[in-house]
Amino acid sequence: MDMDKHVVVVTRVSERHWHALDDDQVIGRGEGTRRPDGRMFLSVDAWDGAVFAQLAAAMLTDLPRPLYTVVDEADLDLLISWERIGFGPRRREWEYVMPTDPQLTGLGKTPPPPDVTIAAADEEPLRELDRVIRDEVEATVGWQNMPAEVLWPPLDPARYTVAVHAGDYVGLVRVAPLPRQPRIGLIAVRDGLRRRGIARALLAEVLGATHRRGIETASADVNQANGAAIALFESVGARRAGSNLELVLR
C-alpha cells in the first residue's frame, strides 16, 4: 500500500483502543492495558512504520505518563519504533527453557525439608499465602519488578503446587499448562523459610509431573536482577532462549 496516496486517520474507538483507518479500512490497532499494579502498558499492531507512529502519537496524546510496553529484544524493528517516540529500557526479563526429565535436571531425589510437605493447593489458604508473598515482595524489590507473567492472574488453585509447614502454606509454584511447553509463572517461598531447599523441591515436583505427562521442556521468565531465581533455574539445566525488554516513557 502506498501511504503517500492515502490519508490515514487514527480514531479512539473506546477508552483503551485506537484504530488507524485508510478509506474506512482498519490497517492498524493500538491498545492500552491497565495492569493491577496501576501501570498502563501499550501495544501497537501495524505493519507499516508510519501507521505505527501515528497510532502511537495518538495514544501518547490521550494517555497520562508514565507509559510502558514490553518488546521481544530480538524484534529490532519494533524496539526501534518504540525508541523513536521516546521509550527507553527499564528492565530485562530472560526467558529460560529447561528440561523436565529428572535425569537431566538432577531433581530425581529432591525431597523437601523433613518438616515440609508438597501438596496440591486449596483456594482459601492459597489466597492467604498469595497475599502474604505479594506484601513481602512489595516491601523489598517491589512488585513492579516481577516478571509480567506473575502480575495478578486469576487465582486458579489447579495451577498451583504448594509447600506446607506446620499446617500453613509457606511456598508456591504456579504452572500455566500450555500444551507444548508449560510455563512456570511464579515460584516463591515466604521470608524466614528460604534457603532450605523448598523452592527446589517445588520445582522438582512440577517438572517431574510435567515429564510424566510426556512433555520434555518447560519455560520461565526471570528478571535479570533476580540472581536467586537465575541460579535455581540454571542449576537444573535451564538455558536462555530469549529476552524481553520492558520500556518506559516518563
UniProtKB/TrEMBL annotation:
<keyword id="KW-0808">Transferase</keyword>
<feature type="domain" description="N-acetyltransferase">
    <location>
        <begin position="116"/>
        <end position="250"/>
    </location>
</feature>
<keyword id="KW-0012">Acyltransferase</keyword>
<dbReference type="InterPro" id="IPR050832">
    <property type="entry name" value="Bact_Acetyltransf"/>
</dbReference>
<dbReference type="GO" id="GO:0016747">
    <property type="term" value="F:acyltransferase activity, transferring groups other than amino-acyl groups"/>
</dbReference>
<dbReference type="InterPro" id="IPR000182">
    <property type="entry name" value="GNAT_dom"/>
</dbReference>
<protein>
    <submittedName>
        <fullName>GCN5 family acetyltransferase</fullName>
    </submittedName>
</protein>
<dbReference type="Pfam" id="PF00583">
    <property type="entry name" value="Acetyltransf_1"/>
</dbReference>
<dbReference type="InterPro" id="IPR016181">
    <property type="entry name" value="Acyl_CoA_acyltransferase"/>
</dbReference>
